[in-house]
């Protein structure tokens, strides 16, 4: 370590030697940095899952433009829209296809006494062009009433129980007082708003939700003949539907706004975002406290060197060296501990939380930046001090 730091800084690694001189303080500082890293990793991991599950919820559908109720902040929330708007949209040159999308949630009370919440997608069988890649090949088989595709990764249900579902090996379950038959699977997985998903035809959807009517879908999906014309078509649709209580967006914008809403306006997203801020703040405070104490302990030595003519940049370099050493060495146990926590959380919650290289690099860079800030703050006392006053 001393050799590497000597090569890196081109001088005796005074900062590292000072840290190593007090092993107990060094261990406490590394534990603090590791804890701050772990806190940030966990919060970012959960935020990443939230973002990932929001995007994944759009996988079963494909469209260029969405017409939604003006109080629709997410895919599953908001009022229904009138189906007559579908025909008005089709009258616009450049719109080549339209389909109603029905969204709902229902509880599946299982024989073991547990209840799982399912997000249900309903799409007309003839609108297969609006079905996602994993759903589209199965659409013709959903023509039969009460035939559905069931998520193979439902939280609270053993994966083995749903692994072999097919048309030849159907899986029957009771929901809403009806016996329905799963003839295939799709992969959505658990999220923050549901334990899994179910995809079915619009007719089966309406039979599962008797209070819903075919004339009021949750969203209207549109396909265009020229992808480059999406912005102009969205603007045109907004103009002709300006008196309707709807919002017209490209599907990409709808996903982006869903993400923004759930991460910045919902309590869940705000809490996790605040957790990241607290983790960074804790790390800065811990490193600053260690460096500040170290500077105070060696004030006489620093004063002697300052009286000998050493510039402030020399002392800043020593403290910066200590800060970087603490940041790097504290990051390693924080990273390893966070991977363990990710595994535990994934097993307990069935959420797809996992470490990514991008997140690891981002946290490492953030840790080093926080360490540099702490080091800068810790050297303020030395900068304006007179060597005669330091003795």
How would you describe the overall organization of this protein?
- With 391 residues, this protein is an alpha+beta fold.
- It contains 14 helices and 9 strands.
- It has helices at 2-9, 14-21, 23-56, 84-90, 159-162, 202-208, 230-240, 251-264, 267-297, 299-307, 312-349, 357-378, 380-383, 387-390, and strands spanning 65-69, 95-109, 115-123, 147-151, 171-175, 178-186, 196-201, 219-224, 246-250.
- The protein is elongated and about 90 Å long.
- It starts with a helix and ends with a helix.
Main attributes?
elongated, 51% helix, 391 residues, alpha+beta
How do the helices and strands line up, and which of them pair or pack?
Elements: H1 2-9, H2 14-21, H3 23-56, E1 65-69, H4 84-90, E2 95-109, E3 115-123, E4 147-151, H5 159-162, E5 171-175, E6 178-186, E7 196-201, H6 202-208, E8 219-224, H7 230-240, E9 246-250, H8 251-264, H9 267-297, H10 299-307, H11 312-349, H12 357-378, H13 380-383, H14 387-390
Helix pairs in contact: 2-11, 3-8, 3-9, 3-11, 3-12, 9-11, 9-12, 11-12
